[in-house]
């Protein structure tokens, strides 16, 4: 409810109070307020206001001054502030002795302003209240000349609530009054009827996909007044605008069907055509093809149906461990702006508004913020991610998990892992962060990433794959006195073909096989013998590999999604080679 001047607002508050259960608990003198249907008093008048300003030595801020011109004070009205804002009671806080009464703990709680100056110079508007205080700070003034208003509840462990003006504070107290009474039987008045009508308008407009920001404003206003329907509707809109993933209990409370899997995770399983699209999208997302997952969900949104009168969006997507990360804030807004659940929105081709899939390539790995340490990956064409995991892994394929979850799980065991998935064009990938120091001699895998029947030696051959590519990047300082390493190798039909290893400074470059000109390490790393490899070198090498093979690693899926993972180090080896402490060279 917008408030433009005092009289209509205060009359509304008075009328709502009279119709509330609170009006039955009258104190001395409140009979007049009930009879007059007015919680205020006669206006202060210009002469009285000027006298107050002269006594205080200030010009009062606009909304408080106009308040006094409307009513010289305000009765409790369920706020615990009695009386509030009357001219005779206004004084500087220090003059009332309040400054000396503030304990050290209470002063420490005021972190938004300087405690001494604020409490000493502020105007106190509720000196008679034992439970709360209202202060206007002349040192905190906005462009409209309004002084910040502070509501302090008297609890020394809490900061006071700050408002831009006295009017804004009074609006907040009005909302507080409504929240306190919303569960009271018979609490129905003009304000509650207006707010409930706004909630219903917002609900139907959300289903049509109409002006989501405007509908959210209506829901927030109604929720802050304590209207019960507004809370769940607001939560759904805000959850989608924030994007996923979210904790499943939050979404479960909103009514979406979440089926518990293995006692620890959940799966979103709506029925009908939309449910079919969700199942297909989940299968794509769990192997890293999050763009395809989204482009499967988006056209099916019109088939989504609500599970009750207060259900306005498929928020269960956010709680699904695999699909939650797919729903970015931008995609959440797209969902809300798409007519669904029987909502008849404007006719338009929403597919044209969906963002085009982005080919990530490999160079994004050279961003220091994206990949803050050494890493390696294998790309294999012609085999599935499950087969690749079986060739490089030790143990079972794990359920989809985030990078952090995977790291925590195996970090406790001191074992390294690779996350696996699809990366387009018939290629599968296995990606591993935080590798051990690069070693050129043959190991039990592509420099260590290998399983019992899989990749052999540093050339990274993958049996059964038509072609395989291994890239291992060790950044300067990641290994013991390492000047940086960029290792690349290619194999075809299980046989090594060519590759190179570039190390910074005097170590030099090694190469074997017929390396294509586009991948010539002398061209890509011309100065590697004179200095340590840097991010520019890494970028050039990754870009060349991506262009030569037409390959890409899914940035979003690797960084933010949930992917299957497999241990790349047997338990016995992890015991011999414990994981380094964070921040220490590996």
For the structure shown, list the relevant keywords.
single chain, 586 residues, alpha+beta, 8-stranded antiparallel beta sheet, 5-stranded antiparallel beta sheet, 35% helix, 14% strand, disordered C terminus
Give me the secondary-structure topology.
Blueprint: H1 6-18, H2 30-36, H3 46-56, H4 62-68, E1 91-92, H5 98-101, H6 104-109, H7 115-121, E2 123-124, E3 133-141, E4 147-152, E5 161-163, H8 166-181, H9 190-208, H10 212-224, H11 228-242, H12 248-252, E6 258-261, E7 265-268, H13 272-285, H14 290-297, H15 316-319, H16 329-336, E8 375-381, H17 385-392, H18 403-411, E9 417-422, E10 427-433, E11 467-474, E12 485-492, E13 495-503, E14 508-512, H19 521-524, H20 535-549, H21 555-560, E15 564-567, H22 571-576
Antiparallel strand pairs: 1-2, 2-3, 3-4, 4-5, 6-7, 8-10, 8-11, 9-10, 9-15, 11-12, 12-13, 13-14
Helix pairs in contact: 9-10, 10-11, 11-16, 13-14
Strand order of the largest sheet: 14-13-12-11-8-10-9-15
Mean pLDDT: 82
- Strand portion: 5-15%
Distance between the amino and carboxyl termini = 60 Å
Please work out how many helical segments DSSP would assign: 22
Largest sheet: 8 strands, antiparallel
How many strand elements?
Answer: 15
Q: Structural class, judged by helices and strands?
A: alpha+beta
Which geometry do the CA atoms define?
elongated
Radius of gyration: 33 Å
Helical amount: 25-40%
Uncertain runs: 98-116, 441-459, 575-586
């Amino acid at each position: 409810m917008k408030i433009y001047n005092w009289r209509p607002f205060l009359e509304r508050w008075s009328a709502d109070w009279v119709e509330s259960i609170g009006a039955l608990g009258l104190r001395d003198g409140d009979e007049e307020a009930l009879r007059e249907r007015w919680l205020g008093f006669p206006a202060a008048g210009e002469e009285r206001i000027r006298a107050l300003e002269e006594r205080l030595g200030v010009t009062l801020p606009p909304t408080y001054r106009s308040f006094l011109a409307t009513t010289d004070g305000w009765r409790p009205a369920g706020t615990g502030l009695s009386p509030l804002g009357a001219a005779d009671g206004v004084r500087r806080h220090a003059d009332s002795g309040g400054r000396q009464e503030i304990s050290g703990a209470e002063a420490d709680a005021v972190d938004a302003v300087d405690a001494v100056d604020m409490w000493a110079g502020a105007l106190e508007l509720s000196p008679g209240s034992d439970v709360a205080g209202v202060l206007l700070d002349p040192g905190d003034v906005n462009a409209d000349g309004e002084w910040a208003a502070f509501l302090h509840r008297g609890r020394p462990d809490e900061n006071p609530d700050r408002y831009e003006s006295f009017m804004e504070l009074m609006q907040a107290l009005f909302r507080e009054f409504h929240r306190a009474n919303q569960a009271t039987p018979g609490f129905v008045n003009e304000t509650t009827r207006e707010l409930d009508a706004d909630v219903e308008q917002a609900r139907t407009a959300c289903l049509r996909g109409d002006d989501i920001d405007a509908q959210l404003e209506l829901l927030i206003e109604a929720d802050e007044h304590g209207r019960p329907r507004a809370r769940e509707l607001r939560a759904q809109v805000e959850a989608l605008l924030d994007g996923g993933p979210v904790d499943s209990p939050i979404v479960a409370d909103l009514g979406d069907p979440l089926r518990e899997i293995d006692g620890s995770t959940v799966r979103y399983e709506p029925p009908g055509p939309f449910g079919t699209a969700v199942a297909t999208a989940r299968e794509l997302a769990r192997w890293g093809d999050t763009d395809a997952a989204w482009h499967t969900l988006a056209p099916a949104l019109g088939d989504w149906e609500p599970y009750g009168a207060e259900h306005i969006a498929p928020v269960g997507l956010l709680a699904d461990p695999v699909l939650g990360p797919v729903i970015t804030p931008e995609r959440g807004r797209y969902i809300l702006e798409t007519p669904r659940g029987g909502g008849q929105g404007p006719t338009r081709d929403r597919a044209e508004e969906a963002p085009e899939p982005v080919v990530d390539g490999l160079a994004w790995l050279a961003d220091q913020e994206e990949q803050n340490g050494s890493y390696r990956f294998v790309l294999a064409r012609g085999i599935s991610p499950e087969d690749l995991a079986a060739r490089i892994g030790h143990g079972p394929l794990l359920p989809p998990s985030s990078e952090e979850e995977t790291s925590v799980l195996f970090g406790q065991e001191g074992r390294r892992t690779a996350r696996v998935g699809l990366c387009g064009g018939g290629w599968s990938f296995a990606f591993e962060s935080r590798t051990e120091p690069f070693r050129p001699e043959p190991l039990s895998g592509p420099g260590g990433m290998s399983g019992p029947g899989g990749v052999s030696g540093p050339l990274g051959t993958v049996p059964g794959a038509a072609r395989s590519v291994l890239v291992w990047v060790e950044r300067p300082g990641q290994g013991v006195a390492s000047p940086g390493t960029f290792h690349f190798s290619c194999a075809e039909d299980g046989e090594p073909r060519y590759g190179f290893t570039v190390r910074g400074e005097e170590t030099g470059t090694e190469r074997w096989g017929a390396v294509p000109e586009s991948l010539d390490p002398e061209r890509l790393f011309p100065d590697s013998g004179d200095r340590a490899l840097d991010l520019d070198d890494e970028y050039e090498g990754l870009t060349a590999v991506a262009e030569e093979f037409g390959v890409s690693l899914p940035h979003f899926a690797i960084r933010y999604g949930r992917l299957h993972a497999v241990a790349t180090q047997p338990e016995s080896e992890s015991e011999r080679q414990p994981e380094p402490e964070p921040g220490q060279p590996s």
